[in-house]
């Protein structure tokens, strides 16, 4: 039994945990404001807000999510908000809705509710916003009619209004200003009560896991053992939604055991179910990788980053997974756990990939967390990605580079390259060549040549072989130009 | 005045097809598609599907009671394949089941056996094999053969433009209900309710009066639901007619992308000649249109390519020939601009080709040859109210074109990695259906006894704001508040024999009909007022719901007058018919006066290209546009901004990829990219030119739907300009869209990277990351 709040209603449902939240709100609850555009998280017409009770037990943090890729089970214990849950009395519009109408930001209207929900989510955000973050809130919403400028004007106008939002008790202010109905203020208490009720009544099994235990709601041990592990759903619900509706799923999204980012000695340790957005917003991550937010802005869109987990990206084994490429160059390694055997082992991320979508792990092994050595402040790190569309697109080629330079010599180097082979690649020979050398245009040019021998791209819808080879050369050059702008110039390298 | 629909849109209360409450007993339909692009259809075996839970019927061509034909211009398209299949995704059978999941689950259990035949995907290959949809068309003025001798400069080349997926966010669909009269009533997401009605009646073998089509609104159309909504309407109707149960058919995104036609890709040859003063003397173009497997609207699209082959320029000698080529791809169809953009792209390519070889700025050639008042276009219509030079000069002056050029040059001199590019794109677009008889519309206006007003027309609201404009026309003409006016759904029983909402002409045609009906009602009411108040009819008006006599409030209001009319048994309903005056066109001689008027404008586009990565961002597009006397500046600005960005998408990111087997590889939103928030230009400036409008435009507010799309062509030439700044003197192909891949390969054409002998070059579909 899944239990959650949908707008101001408590929902108790036996619908499958692996079915989509979108189908539930539209066809089970008949809330038709949420639209179906693509069912793959690429248009945002189905955006809803999902609120989660925070550890302080007083506040609820809301995030925009594309309900087409949200497993219904991920709503469990949370507050799901559709447009029907924020509408004011007939004849009245919320400030978000008013801004869109006033600026002409709605033409055919089919994508509009998605924008309304994304901007309402931005209004509810606990962090103070800027024009950039306000626009980022709608970066997962596609509109085919307006050309976006009216929606931009609406967003910037709204952001000006939000400047008056107090730091303390913003929800009371937001309710007073009509951004959300007043029932939002009761949601923290209701979610607390729901949590207690769930804990008291849930059919849960405790699976021992080397001192940890994982709560698998509603599944008995035998079922849990053969269940499909489902994280944010951003890949599996694109690839096989029909199947996920039919089979038991083990939900790992939002499990406290698998979330969080911490430092352990010289390593950074990240829970498997940590989302891309959590990485982007983590102070610790920014401390060790100051340009990470800039890199991650190239990775999907705000709602998808709110949902997609890092380990999900690793395990999906796409040859162009952005997070995989990023962490390969950081020398990440995984902690894999076999719940049945109660065993745990470490595996370097680069050894996870045996062939196209083939993994060096058993079906019973799950990623618990992963770690990487924190780069020194003097280290160089860069991530590059080129896709047909710069944002919210899958890379044609992506690459990351990490360099440690001692004196004038390269002491250590790691390069990763995606989209140029059947698996996400590291380029060991290129890296090895650089070690012990001094950076110069000639050396870099040689490295670019060597890299060509380590890749084997194919032509597909993301580009021809010729393009991918050229692009990888360019992206590797981009790393060096980024690292050594004083020593190298584009004309020297290319 | 507010655009009324958005207030409902933002609350999620506007009802689209899939939002209609489901009627009890509804069956869900899913379409079985041809698995190959060309072949002989040997058998369809659906016994396994029928054994699945919930599956009720599987319909094939044999189950069609009437004629298996939905071709609009040419009867060459069956509703369900019969005998042969001609493209991948062609509907072969229809599965009807109790739930949507059950219907889709059954698709994989229908075996379609096809013996393959050779596949053509390239229009030039089709033309060489004489696979033409209709005989070629040639527009001709002057004598190009003789004119070449007078030219000081002649250039030739090839220009290619890709197709474009409409990507309306609401996919295609229809919901059909059997009626007690033995016919069908349906809600369809269509721009052409009458087309759906006509073809459904034909398929069912009943009269058109037995088929009612109702349209509330569309979640986007852009031409994609003009003729191509018919298939899904007719299939749903066939299901309802056969089973006597309601049938709902909504395509999922990937099915929609696979099965429906798109903007036509073109491959074209051009030859262009100038005199020593760089005045255009002669132009020849040959267009090879990729029509796909059936005619659909291709012949009409082809014709508009010819109408707009010379864009905004005066050329005394023109020969333009177009071939509509049959290939084994889904039948291509209307898309905003309707062939015009393809023709203009070739013209602009020819000018760029000449400018690059002459080493003069292309803007020099463009400006020197702009249309002037009275210039005759190749189809013999003279320009009337020509604003081509005004648009150019206004844009150049208010946005400081020389300053922009200087800034770009200074930036490029300073920067190695980033290069800016600049282009100027003038447009001239003719308004009217080029098939003259289609330029007619009707409006049915009811005044209810409480003074509220209902307006029905043939116009379909799809985001272009036509309902708001019609409401404005009614309110303004009757002299009442807009709140009193409701624009009804578009319904074939209230307004019959409609033209589709297309050709940018919807507000003009239906607005004019509304205006006529409202004028007649107003006259009737004021004559009554004259009698009742014993006042002179001349000088009576209604303003702000008050009757005025020579400007002074008389002793009656709108409400009182309406009530009085009812009790005096005066009709409060009017049905008006409008036909655009003065237009004609002879498709044999290709001469006439096909357009009610033309729309002009000019866009300046600046782009920054990252010459390391091959990516680009558009800094600004600055436009001066001829709206006439805009009826609703906010709606009209929205049309310009939206059309522009859609045009930029066509020219840059949006790349349709079919493989040699006719399979669409860019088959989802993750592999076919339309512009997002960040790929729209950072600045879009829109200046409303001071122009008087045209009497044929509704309240002198010119049509605005399609023309702005063609400003997007400027994006292509701005990027090209930047590439040539990185590689001065480079000869580049004219090939749109100019994707990041093409940019990078153009920036580094000489880099040959080793491909190991074992590398595979097989084309495969990509996978999600």
Automatic annotation (TrEMBL), chain A:
<dbReference type="InterPro" id="IPR016169">
    <property type="entry name" value="FAD-bd_PCMH_sub2"/>
</dbReference>
<dbReference type="InterPro" id="IPR012175">
    <property type="entry name" value="Xanth_DH_ssu_bac"/>
</dbReference>
<keyword id="KW-0285">Flavoprotein</keyword>
<dbReference type="GO" id="GO:0005506">
    <property type="term" value="F:iron ion binding"/>
</dbReference>
<dbReference type="InterPro" id="IPR036010">
    <property type="entry name" value="2Fe-2S_ferredoxin-like_sf"/>
</dbReference>
<dbReference type="InterPro" id="IPR036683">
    <property type="entry name" value="CO_DH_flav_C_dom_sf"/>
</dbReference>
<dbReference type="Pfam" id="PF00941">
    <property type="entry name" value="FAD_binding_5"/>
</dbReference>
<dbReference type="GO" id="GO:0071949">
    <property type="term" value="F:FAD binding"/>
</dbReference>
<dbReference type="InterPro" id="IPR036318">
    <property type="entry name" value="FAD-bd_PCMH-like_sf"/>
</dbReference>
<feature type="domain" description="2Fe-2S ferredoxin-type">
    <location>
        <begin position="1"/>
        <end position="86"/>
    </location>
</feature>
<keyword id="KW-0408">Iron</keyword>
<dbReference type="InterPro" id="IPR012675">
    <property type="entry name" value="Beta-grasp_dom_sf"/>
</dbReference>
<keyword id="KW-0560">Oxidoreductase</keyword>
<dbReference type="Pfam" id="PF01799">
    <property type="entry name" value="Fer2_2"/>
</dbReference>
<dbReference type="InterPro" id="IPR001041">
    <property type="entry name" value="2Fe-2S_ferredoxin-type"/>
</dbReference>
<dbReference type="InterPro" id="IPR005107">
    <property type="entry name" value="CO_DH_flav_C"/>
</dbReference>
<dbReference type="InterPro" id="IPR016166">
    <property type="entry name" value="FAD-bd_PCMH"/>
</dbReference>
<dbReference type="InterPro" id="IPR036884">
    <property type="entry name" value="2Fe-2S-bd_dom_sf"/>
</dbReference>
<keyword id="KW-0274">FAD</keyword>
<dbReference type="InterPro" id="IPR002888">
    <property type="entry name" value="2Fe-2S-bd"/>
</dbReference>
<dbReference type="InterPro" id="IPR006058">
    <property type="entry name" value="2Fe2S_fd_BS"/>
</dbReference>
<dbReference type="Pfam" id="PF03450">
    <property type="entry name" value="CO_deh_flav_C"/>
</dbReference>
UniProtKB/TrEMBL annotation, chain B:
<protein>
    <submittedName>
        <fullName>Xanthine dehydrogenase</fullName>
    </submittedName>
</protein>
<dbReference type="InterPro" id="IPR008274">
    <property type="entry name" value="AldOxase/xan_DH_MoCoBD1"/>
</dbReference>
<dbReference type="InterPro" id="IPR036856">
    <property type="entry name" value="Ald_Oxase/Xan_DH_a/b_sf"/>
</dbReference>
<comment type="similarity">
    <text>Belongs to the xanthine dehydrogenase family.</text>
</comment>
<dbReference type="InterPro" id="IPR046867">
    <property type="entry name" value="AldOxase/xan_DH_MoCoBD2"/>
</dbReference>
<keyword id="KW-0479">Metal-binding</keyword>
<dbReference type="Pfam" id="PF01315">
    <property type="entry name" value="Ald_Xan_dh_C"/>
</dbReference>
<dbReference type="InterPro" id="IPR016208">
    <property type="entry name" value="Ald_Oxase/xanthine_DH-like"/>
</dbReference>
<dbReference type="Pfam" id="PF02738">
    <property type="entry name" value="MoCoBD_1"/>
</dbReference>
<feature type="domain" description="Aldehyde oxidase/xanthine dehydrogenase a/b hammerhead">
    <location>
        <begin position="11"/>
        <end position="118"/>
    </location>
</feature>
<keyword id="KW-0560">Oxidoreductase</keyword>
<dbReference type="GO" id="GO:0016491">
    <property type="term" value="F:oxidoreductase activity"/>
</dbReference>
<dbReference type="Pfam" id="PF20256">
    <property type="entry name" value="MoCoBD_2"/>
</dbReference>
<dbReference type="GO" id="GO:0005506">
    <property type="term" value="F:iron ion binding"/>
</dbReference>
<keyword id="KW-0001">2Fe-2S</keyword>
<dbReference type="InterPro" id="IPR037165">
    <property type="entry name" value="AldOxase/xan_DH_Mopterin-bd_sf"/>
</dbReference>
<dbReference type="InterPro" id="IPR000674">
    <property type="entry name" value="Ald_Oxase/Xan_DH_a/b"/>
</dbReference>
<keyword id="KW-0411">Iron-sulfur</keyword>
<keyword id="KW-0500">Molybdenum</keyword>
<keyword id="KW-0408">Iron</keyword>
<dbReference type="GO" id="GO:0051537">
    <property type="term" value="F:2 iron, 2 sulfur cluster binding"/>
</dbReference>
